[in-house]
Amino acid sequence: MARVLILGANGKIARLAEHIFADTTDSDLRLYLRNAERLRDFADSHTLVEAVEGDTTDVQTLIESMKDEDLVYANLAGSNIESQARAVVQAMHAEKKTRLVWISTLGIYDEVPGKFGEWNKKVLGDYITNYAAAAKVIEDSDLDYTIIRPAWLTDKPEVDYEVTKKGEDFKGTEVSRRSIAQIVVDIAQDPDKYSRESIGVNKPNTDGDKPAWY
Ligand SMILES: NC(=O)c1ccc[n+]([C@@H]2O[C@H](COP(=O)([O-])OP(=O)(O)OC[C@H]3O[C@@H](n4cnc5c(N)ncnc54)[C@H](OP(=O)(O)O)[C@@H]3O)[C@@H](O)[C@H]2O)c1
């Protein structure tokens, strides 16, 4: 049974993952978020789930939240994402935790080819620079990480994806949040999966110059 700490637990992918965990696994979940009241009802209605209040820039609260956990799943965002990455790595070191799943984004290695790559870089701007810096903090650490680089996210209720490795060209333009959530749950059940890897994730056959809805 995996004990999973979810950082940024009210994020859209995180909430999908929480429902998959609760419905299909016996994992114990600790939900870490700002304003924990937002997930109080979900936590109260599931015996293996607790919600704790915390900001991921607060290293001491992070350390306390990591006690007894097997895996940390970070579903974070924001222009201070690099600082959040540093705080998470610092707290994991302090608590001697090793397994981290980190949601990042496409384009952090300039790995998106062609016109879509150019468009993506232009539209995302500093966001990519910040996410690349955060990913570097994780990759430079000794943690057993998986960095997930999703394509542009959709809310389609489907699990349909393919994976590219670091060093390969990114494929496709879109992927569902549901697919990313399923990958996270699968890693928690089998922690050797994608160990110390940075994976691109896209829906097959969605190549184009932009995501279909642009
Ligand atoms: N949109 C796309 O097409 C796309 C594509 C690839 C990757 N991504 C990235 O994938 C990631 C996950 O996506 P998503 O849809 O699940 O994102 P999301 O709904 O925006 O979730 C991000 C979460 O991070 C939390 N957070 C930010 N700063 C925090 C802090 N200091 N302390 C605690 N929590 C903090 C937010 O908390 P609050 O609820 O308290 O604000 C939010 O719930 C994001 O980083 C996103 O940028 C997006």
What is the fold's blueprint, element by element?
Elements: E1 3-7, H1 12-24, E2 28-33, H2 40-44, E3 49-53, H3 59-66, E4 71-74, H4 81-94, E5 99-103, H5 114-124, H6 126-139, E6 144-150, E7 152-154, E8 162-165, E9 174-176, H7 177-189, E10 197-202
Parallel strand pairs: 1-2, 1-4, 2-3, 4-5, 5-6, 6-10, 7-9
Antiparallel strand pairs: 8-10
NADP nicotinamide-adenine-dinucleotide phosphate (NAP) binds next to helix 1 and strand 7.
What attributes does this structure have?
single chain, 214 residues, alpha/beta, Rossmann fold, eight-stranded mixed sheet, two-stranded parallel sheet, 7 helices, globular, binds NADP nicotinamide-adenine-dinucleotide phosphate
Structure description:
By secondary structure, the chain is an alpha/beta fold. It has a single domain, classed as NAD(P)-binding Rossmann-like Domain (Rossmann fold), CATH 3.40.50.720. The chain contains seven helices and ten strands. It has an eight-stranded mixed β-sheet with strand order 3-2-1-4-5-6-10-8, with helices on both faces. The protein has a two-stranded parallel sheet with strand order 7-9. Bound molecules: NADP nicotinamide-adenine-dinucleotide phosphate. NADP nicotinamide-adenine-dinucleotide phosphate binds next to helix 1 and strand 7.
